[in-house]
From TrEMBL, chain B:
Family the UniProt entry places it in: Belongs to the CDC50/LEM3 family.
Alphabetical keyword list: Cell membrane, Cytoplasmic vesicle, Disulfide bond, Glycoprotein, Golgi apparatus, Lipid transport, Membrane, Transmembrane, Transmembrane helix, Transport
Membrane topology classification: Multi-pass membrane protein
Stored PANTHER family: CELL CYCLE CONTROL PROTEIN 50 (PTHR10926), CELL CYCLE CONTROL PROTEIN 50A (PTHR10926:SF17)
Cross-referenced InterPro entries: CDC50/LEM3_fam
Naturally occurring in which organism (per UniProt): Nyctibius grandis
Gene Ontology cellular-component annotations: apical plasma membrane; endoplasmic reticulum; Golgi apparatus; transport vesicle membrane
Compositionally biased region (Polar residues): 27-37
Name under which the protein is recorded: Cell cycle control protein 50A
Main location: membrane
Transmembrane region(s): 209-231
Region (Disordered): 23-47
GO biological process per UniProt: phospholipid translocation
Cell location: Apical cell membrane; Cytoplasmic vesicle, Secretory vesicle membrane; Golgi apparatus; Membrane
Length: 1201, 246
């Protein structure tokens, strides 16, 4: 990829001219060639080695190796270090090489894609990498955009152009881009070839939703915005062709600028490990120093005199220098205490010899997650996927979950579920129990076969509604007529009878689809008409006006003229608004309907009230005239329109109400309940409206009516927000003071609580609005906000931007020292997913951006409980047990050298054979602990779900912390003391059974090594809580392998070949044949293990952990029936949370009336084009801006979160 | 049964790293090239006056060379006790690990041609004993010495005293005298020499440590068992499912 130019200094602004390569070349902008690969064949070896030796661990091993090559220092032969080092380096190199090969391949593929470039007035096929800044290229439908382009013109009217940005931000809905009017005329190549506009714009950056620049052409200035840009990575849709001017190419494109290195996440255990490794390193140096001083003293006192038999090494002339050398010798032999391989450095986990075990264990856990059938979604055929393999144990420590709403908690599928027409409620499932049962238990759905236009996917369970339609109930007919007329849905008839609705919000889609199935089929619309098939008859209504939805009105209306000539206004909207605008004669009906609404709201449904009003011809004429004036008015247009709308939407006649189910993902309330029991706090962060969010909060049981209070913070200024927060806290404090008497209050204040507020009695919830959140997240208020929020059981933040989501996560991370998990499915969750300790992506309908950024992905929210309570919990447990054991065995192994030092003149003589030292960690003890680390479980998975409290030790970090670490170290050191001094005591005077001395060095080494292997094997047996065949195989196998290797190494054959390497010849059979040796080994084992057994026994009796109790109960009552933990479906009353819950956008009414988004004949179009409201595009943009603008990020598409 | 005669040394660091590695097992295994070109590990006892030392290294050089002789004193007459000097080394050491260099004939003097004796030795290695199967590198005293001790105070088997008949003890009660030919200096480093006579059982010589340790550990285990039993009886039944909070 040498073709790709090197980088230059950052530019201040970009200046380029169309069709002028020579002119643009002098700026040396990056070409469109991308390079993500790191090496080529020549540079691979040096660069890769250089990178690898930047790893602390590798350098450390190299350093040790060098030390071992110094004869005066070498206390171990060099191969004990070089073999693992070479192994590690080559494995890593091979891995890097393969990775890079694939990067080369994908670079090549992308760089060689074809695109049509306008060169010299003609279109030429060019490879992507040859596209230059300032070129004009032609794109065709479904092609990838080759670089960041300024849209010049397109096949569509007004220079419109549709793109899909899935690869960029994960959103799969098509977006509109528009060329600026002056260039949209440039439809053919000859005109374009003459185009010589000059663009001055911002330098390359990674902001996907912003662009600022100016086009200078023909002495005029035209401002450019993101609305005119086509970014690399987008795909052109529904547009035959378009032309664009290359602004940014290759590495400068926003896509490439965004593909920064993902931040490497480490678990809290990793971070703890880094500290511990440093401590151990310090400990190692201390021991080295002690032994070095010992050596200096010994050489000074004894060694000097002993020189007749053992002269000092050449070059060693003083005891001090000898001590100095022995320091390094001891560093070499004691370095096995430093689990340097566990040291995570510089963004990647170091591969290293003794333990790839940690990686293997984590990988194993990841595979368990990937293979978990219970986390496999059969419907969408997606298994759970652990995309990061290094975070598993952190899943067992999660304290805060930040969840997106749409697509995560909910399916983003709206279902018309119930309705109330003229005081009669329809839609209850005719089930004996009266509550909604799971699919399959339901009776047959209503048969819509009478209606050829019905949507086959629509299901309704109450046949009486259809009967009412068939019987011709006028109210029901009017009800569905309203639904088929009053909306902004577009229809598309792909083939005869096959209708597709393009709804702007799923709620509307659901309503129109319901009407369609009940025989009121909305078929097509023109800017002035709506055609509806009413029970088989096509009727065309004249569309007189759309009184569009907005956030304040919370309703929308249409005014239509029926074929008979009657003018009628149809209105649907939030009940709170609409019920006040009814004609007084509706009072009784309104009361009944209100009851129904309460009922629906209690089930968590989103409700709407429908009403109509007949208008007099004359009144309408007058009103319409005034409307025309108002919309043409230059000032206060909005206000005047609103007033007019208000005026006409009055004294309406109530038709009924609809209830839409915002379908939750399966098992969401249950999951939330269990996670709450596990002491995990769940915060919902959604871009949706407050009403919707709160509604979902209720339906997924985060909020309940049992809660003492739900605080809502909606202040617009800093002061208001502060006051609201303060008020909330005061209320909580007051309540807890009055409820809890002093004693219990004190008791609740356990040491873990960081704030008094956490001891609040009663359940509270906090709902924060986006604009308030912006203030609450400011530096001086964030702590206040956090304290309030953490005192609440549930927190819902609505209308938040992606950036704010990340900020909230960051806030909790910063002050709470707790593990956070973010779960979401859309592109707007990416920042949150990346920020949290653990990011989970729901692989759903909203593209794959979230999944790509996530560490774990699966398709259903409910799998989260399994991921955390089962996999996470086990992973944490296993990792902790593994680490404890790991430190224990290494200390037990290494510290023996320390004690021996006092008896061998501090000469750094090893206790063991050098092969034992090489193999101890790799072969003899690695597999059993690996098996434990992978398979261990304390309680079976059903119990983890049954007793969510079992999750708590992980959150409190109880299983592996500094205290546990010191206990393990202490146990290791204790073992090492016995391991040395018991054989010492025995050997001091012992002789063999044939009279020869027993206490020779080699026999001693074999005895200590054998007892060590046996003791650590017994210990792992004690630690293993869950025995699988593999555990047995590995533990017994390791022992067998130990003896096999021992005898092999001490065999005649090897000695004959390499007498100087295998000096222990004949030692195994001679030593292990001695009863004394076995008595020693037995004694050592018992003395090492007995205190552990006693201690554990006592702990079990006196201070049992919950998991111990659960295990015990399970043993005692194996047939105990699983405690039935059914979720109460609380039949809530009151507190109606109806709202105009549409995730609706204003402006579509105008769009429809203008007809711009319809493919009409040009004549039809031109008749509408001149309408006064033609500025719909601007309106739309303005609304978008003001919706997301509250937090300064217009990128939050308001209609999806 | 047989009585075993040991010499003991204390404060002698046979387990010092520099000492332990100062040998060439290849040379000791009879490798001719190593005989004439010993391993560097043997420094500074690798060569002497440009001749390779056989056996090289500090271990061999410091071989214990006092001679001990035991006499029974019966009515003022000294009867020497037969001390057997073969069978004191491990079989594998004598037959596998240590071998004399090979060549034409069995003349050790010729085989060791070109080498010189260790500095401290009075005689070269091929004059350690008169019997050919106990001479050179396979001299058992030498082999025993070369099996370095694990601890600075150690004993090494020196001679066997065989039991003559089953009716009398090997060494009858009475007066004995020990004659020591004093060649081996230990004063300089504050060392001590001992001579030990011992019989053995199935688990070797007298070794009180193991017995005491076993009794102690056994008692502790028993005591601990009782205490734990009591504790379990008193507090253990707290373990019921009723305790499981939720």
């Amino acid at each position: 990829m040498e073709r790709c130019a090197a980088r230059r200094a950052p530019e201040e602004e970009r200046r380029l001219r169309a069709n002028a390569r020579e002119y643009n070349e002098k700026f040396q902008y990056a070409s469109n060639c991308i390079k993500t690969s790191k090496y080529n064949i020549v540079t691979f070896l040096p660069v890769n080695l250089f990178e690898q030796f930047q790893e602390v661990a590798n350098t450390y091993f190299l350093f040790l190796l060098i030390l071992q090559l110094i004869p005066q220092v070498s206390s171990l032969s060099w191969f004990t270090t070089i073999v693992p080092l070479v192994l590690v380096l080559s494995i890593t190199a091979v891995k890097d090489a393969t990775d890079d090969y694939f990067r080369h391949k994908s670079d090549n593929q992308v760089n060689n894609r074809q695109s049509q470039v306008l060169i010299g007035g003609a279109l030429r096929q060019e490879q992507w990498m040859n596209v230059r800044v300032g070129d004009i290229i032609k794109l065709e439908n479904n092609q990838f955009v080759a670089a960041d382009l300024l849209l010049l013109s397109s096949s569509e009217p007004h220079g419109l152009c549709y793109i899909e940005t899935a690869e960029l931000d994960g959103e799969t809905n098509t977006k509109v881009r528009q060329a600026i009017p002056v260039t949209s005329e440039l439809g053919d190549t000859s005109k374009l070839a003459r185009f010589d506009g000059e663009v001055i714009c911002e330098p390359p950056n990674n902001k996907l939703d912003k662009f600022g620049g100016t086009l200078y052409w023909k002495e005029n200035k035209y401002p450019l915005s993101n609305q005119n840009m086509l970014l690399r990575g987008c795909v052109l849709r529904n547009t035959e062709w378009c032309f664009g001017l290359v602004i940014f190419a290759g590495p400068d494109t926003k896509l490439m600028q965004n593909s920064g290195r993902t931040k490497f996440k480490r678990t809290s255990i990793d971070r703890l490990m880094n500290t511990l490794v440093l401590w151990i390193f310090g400990f190692l140096v201390c021991m080295g120093v002690i032994l070095a001083i010992g050596n200096a003293i010994w050489e000074h006192e004894v060694g000097v005199c002993f020189q007749i038999y053992l002269p000092w090494d050449e070059g060693v002339h003083s005891a001090f220098f000898s001590g100095f050398l022995s320091f390094w010798s001891y560093i070499i032999i004691l370095n096995t205490v430093v689990p340097i391989s566990l040291y995570v450095s510089m963004g990647s986990v170091t591969l290293s010899p003794e333990v790839r075990t940690v990686e293997v264990i984590r990988l194993g856990h990841s595979y368990f997650i990937n293979w978990d059938k219970k986390m496999y979604c059969a419907k969408c055929r997606t298994p759970a996927e652990a995309r990061t393999t290094t975070l598993n144990e952190e899943l067992g420590q999660v304290e805060y979950i930040f969840s997106d709403k749409t697509g995560t908690l909910t399916q983003n599928i709206m279902v018309f579920s119930k309705c109330s027409v003229n005081g009669h409620s329809y839609g209850d499932v005719q089930d004996v129990l009266g509550h909604k049962a799971e699919l399959g238990e339901r009776p047959e759905p209503v048969d819509f076969s009478f209606n050829p236009l019905a949507d086959p996917e629509f299901q309704f369970w109450d046949p009486s509604l259809l009967e009412a339609v068939k019987l011709g109930d006028p109210h029901v007919h009017e009800f569905f007529r309203l639904l088929s007329l009053c909306h902004t849905v577009m229809s598309e008839e792909k083939s005869e009878g096959e209708l597709y609705y393009k709804a702007q919000s799923p709620d509307e889609g659901a309503l129109v689809t319901a009407a369609r199935n009940f025989g009121f089929v909305f078929q097509s619309r023109t800017p002035k008409t709506i055609t509806v098939h009413e029970l088989g008859r096509a009727i065309t209504y004249q569309l007189l006006a759309i009184l569009d939805f907005n956030n304040i009105r919370k309703r929308m209306s249409v005014i239509v003229r029926s074929p008979e000539g009657k003018i009628r206004l149809y209105c649907k909207g939030a009940d709170t608004i609409l019920l006040e605008r009814l004609h007084p004669v509706n009072q009784d009906l309104a009361n009944v309907t209100t009851d129904h609404l309460n009922e629906y709201a209690g089930e968590g449904l989103r409700t709407l009230v429908l009403a109509y009003k007949d208008l007099e011809e004359s009144y309408y004429e007058d009103w319409s005239e005034r409307l025309h004036q108002a919309s043409g008015a230059p000032d206060a247009r909005e206000d005047r329109l609103a007033r007019l709308y208000n005026e006409v939407e009055n004294d309406m006649m109530l038709l009924g109400a609809t209830a839409i189910e915002d379908k939750l993902q399966q098992g969401v309330p249950e999951t939330i309940a269990i996670l709450t029991l596990a002491n995990i706090k769940i915060w919902v962060l959604t871009g949706d409206k407050q009403e919707t969010a709160v509604n979902i909060g209720y339906s997924c049981k985060m909020l309940t009516d049992d809660m003492t209070e739900v605080f809502v913070v909606t202040g617009h200024t800093v002061l208001e927000v502060r006051q609201e927060l303060r008020k909330a806290r005061e209320k909580m404090m007051d309540a807890s003071r009055s409820v809890g008497n002093g004693f219990s209050y004190q008791e609740k204040l356990s040491s873990k609580l960081t704030s008094v507020l956490e001891a609040i009695a009663g359940e509270y919830a906090l709902v924060v609005n986006g604009h308030s959140l912006a203030h609450a997240l400011e530096a001086d208020m964030e702590v206040e906000f956090l304290e309030t929020a953490c005192a609440c059981k549930a927190v819902i933040c609505c209308r938040v931007t992606p950036l704010q989501k990340a900020q909230v996560v960051e806030l909790v991370k910063k002050y709470k020292k707790a593990v956070t998990l973010a779960i979401g499915d859309g592109a707007n969750d990416v920042s949150m997913i990346k920020t949290a300790h653990i990011g989970v992506g729901i692989s759903g309908q909203e593209g794959i951006q979230a999944v790509l950024a996530s560490d774990y992905s699966f398709s259903q929210f409910k799998f989260l409980q399994r991921l955390l309570l089962v996999h996470g919990r086990w992973s944490y447990l296993r990792m902790c047990k593994f680490l404890c054991y790991f430190f224990y065995k290494n200390f037990a192994f290494t510290m023996v050298h320390f004690w021996f030092g006092f008896f061998c003149g501090f000469s750094a003589q090893t206790v063991y054979d050098q092969y034992f030292i090489t193999l101890y960690n790799i072969v003899y003890t690695s597999l059993p602990v690996l098996a434990m680390g992978i398979f261990d479980q304390d309680v079976p998975e059903q119990r983890s779900m049954e007793y969510p409290k079992l999750y708590e030790p992980g959150q409190l970090n109880l299983l592996f912390n500094k205290r546990e670490f010191f206990i393990c170290i202490a146990q290791g050191i204790y073992t090492s003391v016995l391991m040395f001094f018991i054989p010492y005591g025995v050997f001091a005077d012992a002789t063999r059974d044939d009279g020869a001395q027993l206490a020779d060095y080699q026999s001693f080494a074999v005895t200590v090594a054998t007892s060590l292997v046996i003791v650590v094997s017994v210990q792992i047996g004690l630690d293993t809580g869950f025995w699988t065949a593999i555990n047995h195989f590995f533990i017994w196998g390791s022992l067998a392998v130990y003896f096999a290797i021992l005898f092999a190494m001490h065999s005649d054959g090897l000695f004959q070949m390499f007498p100087n390497q295998f000096r222990f010849v004949g030692n195994a059979q001679n030593t292990l044949a001695q009863p004394t040796v076995w008595l020693t080994i037995a004694l050592t084992t018992v003395v090492c293990i007995m205190p552990v057994v006693a201690f554990r026994f006592l702990k079990l009796d006196l201070k049992p952990q919950l998991s111990d109790t659960v295990r015990y109960t399970q043993l005692v009552r194996k047939k105990q029936k699983a405690q039935h933990r059914c979720m109460r479906r609380v039949g809530r009353t009151g507190s109606r949370r109806s709202g105009y819950a549409f995730s609706h956008q204003e402006g579509f009414g105008e769009l429809i009336m203008s007809g711009k988004n319809m493919r009409l004949s040009s004549s039809a179009l031109s008749s509408f084009a001149a309408r006064p409201g033609a500025g719909w595009m601007e309106t739309l943009r303005k609304k978008k801006g003001s919706d997301g603008g509250t937090a300064g990020s217009p990128g939050a598409a308001p209609n999806k979160v | 049964s047989n009585v075993f005669m040991y010499y003991g040394l204390s404060n002698f660091y046979q387990n010092h790293r520099r000492y332990v590695k100062s040998r060439d097992d290849s040379q000791l295994n009879g490798d001719n090239s190593s005989l004439l070109n010993p391993s560097k590990e043997c420094e500074p006892y690798r060569t002497n006056e440009d001749k390779p030392i056989a056996p090289c290294g500090a271990i061999a050089n410091s071989m214990f060379n006092d001679t001990l002789e035991l006499y029974r004193i019966d009515n003022n007459t000294k009867t020497p006790i037969t001390l057997i000097k073969k069978g004191i080394a491990w079989w594998t050491d004598k037959n596998v690990k240590f071998r004399n260099p090979t060549g034409d004939g069995n003349n050790l003097t010729a085989l060791f041609q070109g080498t010189t004796k260790p500095v401290n030795w009075p005689k070269p290695v091929y004059m350690l004993d008169l019997e050919p199967d106990n001479n050179g590198f396979i001299n058992e005293d030498f082999i025993v010495w070369m099996r370095t001790a694990a601890l600075p105070t150690f004993r090494k088997l020196y001679r066997l005293i065989e039991r003559k008949n089953n009716l009398q003890p090997t060494l009858q009660a009475g007066k004995y005298s020990l004659d020591i030919a004093y060649n081996y200096p230990v004063h300089s480093f504050d060392g001590r020499k001992r001579m030990i006579l011992s019989t053995i059982s199935w688990m070797g010589g007298k070794n009180p440590f193991l017995g005491i340790a076993y009794i102690t550990v056994g008692s502790i285990c028993f005591f601990l068992g009782v205490v734990l039993l009591i504790i379990h009886h008193k507090y253990g039944n707290r373990n019921t499912s009723a305790d499981i909070p939720n």
